[in-house]
threonine-phosphate decarboxylase
Amino acid sequence: MSEHGGNSIEVAQRFGIPANELVDFSANINPLGAPERVKALIKDNLACIEKYPDVEYRHLHQALADAHQCDTASVIAGNGATELIYAVVRYLNPKRALLLTPGFAEYRRALQHVGAEIIAYPLTEDAGFQPDLRLLDTLTMTQPDCIFIATPNNPTGLMPDNRFLQSLVQHCEEHRIALIVDEAFMDFLPDNRGLIPHIAATCHLYVLRSLTKFFAIPGLRLGYLVSGDRAGIAWMKSQREPWSINALAARVGEILLDDQAYITATHQWLKLQQHYLWTHLSSCPELTVWPPSANFLFFRCHQPSLDLWHTLLEHRLLIRHCKNYVGLDASYYRIAVRSEQENQRLIAAIQHIFEHG
């Protein structure tokens, strides 16, 4: 089985279920679908597939730089943020790295590719799955070359305290530790600009962003990395495979971040449906549900004999089990926030399962 969500075709084939009958809560993709401007742009620019894209992606990099009020020398776009996880690790070539667990699997894979020693820093349920200033002490003791942290974290959906993040940035800058911050879900937090505003004053901060989740374009694949380490950005651009971003994805990326109508509609949908899911799941005594900050919820099922993943699959609902995350077991799950009708269907199914065994 895939280590990621969004594997509905694989699950459908394995269990003999028509893929079009599954409602996929395992992938954290905006259920509003791709913006209409994106669909129109693709339709009107199909001829661009007959030419090679600009190997430097000048217009795309300029649009991203404009959106974050920085120079294009501080930005590199990629075929999804995952490409850039591997690119920044190849550039840093760390001997020792610290990973917060549970966390996104590709950090570990990328580090293993360069033979880095990996130090695990467990985020425990007792501590609310949140890092605190004790992490800085661990950095001092272990002296890693780099650290990965996701804000909000995947799979817990939790956003670390802002003062803690400020202290972490300062500590890593002072001790020359590369701090890679994955903000793949930051766009779902309307009142949080993330750490990109800090890149002008730092050399060891690398901020990853994804356009896949918020703008519902996982099939196009598009992400970017922003850093004050311009030499590092230049190295990554020079070492990447040519044309890793297709022409349509590059063209779409030029218009996404100024689509205010779509951005506003997404925030309005999430405010309502996130609260709906949180309220109803939290009312189930069989579950512990952590307060969400992004477009997905993380919870634990306290019925050890119940395989909620398989049971919901019988209802044609696919959720994300978290047993393959380091530090978690089969009792932990993650679900995406979807449309009102789909969310109602999920809640009804879960209530039915707990009421009828």
Notes: The chain has a mean pLDDT of 95. Residues 260-282 form the longest helix (23 residues). Residues 98 and 147 are 5 Å apart (CA to CA). The chain is about 35% helix and 15% strand.
